[in-house]
Design goal:
The protein contains two helices and five strands; from the N terminus they run H-E-E-E-H-E-E. With 124 residues, it is an alpha+beta fold.
Length: 124
């Protein structure tokens, strides 16, 4: 599989895992008007979650979440703000999660979700 296929597989696995663990997936691959993007938007009880999915075929170079640096966080935050704008800026709780997917040939996928992995800057 190439990188795009690995990423797509990871998103499918993450969406399925989230659904099986009490989340309601609302949208996948959201692209906002202000160049923001969110891999998965889901409800987790009374919280709206914006989830970045990071998929790797090895942990030799660190955890998948290590790839979600400040630039990527800003991209996700812009997407979340666009989504909230579409909803009319409701007064609801929301958070940013990271779904780490590790695909090792011959093994079941490993899924780890980091809840509240980062926040909006105070100035937002």
């Amino acid at each position: 599989m190439n990188r795009t296929e690995i990423g797509s597989m990871g998103e499918i696995i993450a969406a399925r895992w989230l659904s099986l663990h009490g989340r309601r997936v609302l949208h996948r691959n959201y692209r906002g008007v202000n160049r923001g993007e969110v891999d998965i938007i889901a409800r987790h009880r009374d919280v709206l979650t914006f989830i970045e999915v990071k998929t790797r075929t090895s942990t030799a170079f660190g955890r998948p979440a290590d790839a979600v640096g400040p630039d990527k966080q800003r991209l996700i935050q812009r997407g979340a703000q666009d989504w909230l704008r579409l909803l009319g800026h409701p007064r609801i709780k929301f958070r940013f999660d990271i779904a780490e997917i590790v695909l090792i040939e011959g093994e079941l996928p490993h899924v780890h979700v980091i809840e509240n992995a980062f926040q909006l800057p105070a100035s937002s």
